[in-house]
Amino acid sequence: MARSPKTVSIRHLHAAVKTALEAAKKKHPEFKIDPATPTGGLTTLPIYYRYPWICGLPVPWPEYDLQNLATFTNTFVTNLASNEHISALAVDGKFEPTLHVSPGDTAIGFTPGPVSFVE
Q: Using an 8 Å Cβ cutoff, are 106 and 60 in contact?
């Protein structure tokens, strides 16, 4: 039997990331992460999606040490996992926190499963 393709709405993903980021910042007020960029009067987030490695947000680094960034990432991903609209992104139903760090390119998020995105 063929599996039906998983889909996630970009709007739901943006809303979930925004909510999870705000909740994580409340729990960890020392983080001043604000990746929002105004476009046409709306605020959007620059979602960082690199299947199969990471789905999340780009963040400034080395502004924060990696241990604190990992703690913040765990909180962020726990909040994301509570959103049923993006559950199809989880690998085998589980959101695994992930940090992506390379020269000039740092992101926090989770390891994504294979999905298609819709409006």
A: yes
What is the chain's pLDDT, residue by residue, as a tens digit (119 residues)? 445 568 999 999 999 999 999 999 999 998 888 765 555 555 678 898 999 999 999 887 666 688 888 999 999 999 999 999 999 999 988 999 999 988 777 899 999 999 999 98
Residue 47's closest CA among 84, 20, 17, 70? 17
How do beta strands 97-102 and 7-9 pair? unpaired
Q: Residue 92: name the closest of 41, 52, 42, 43 by CA.
A: 52
Structural contact between residues 79 and 119, judged by C-beta atoms closer than 8 angstroms: no
- List CB contacts of 55: < 8 A, sequence separation 6 or more: 47, 48, 49, 89, 109, 110, 111, 112
pTM, two decimals, is 0.86
Q: Which residues contact 64 (CB under 8 A, 6 or more apart)?
A: 31, 72
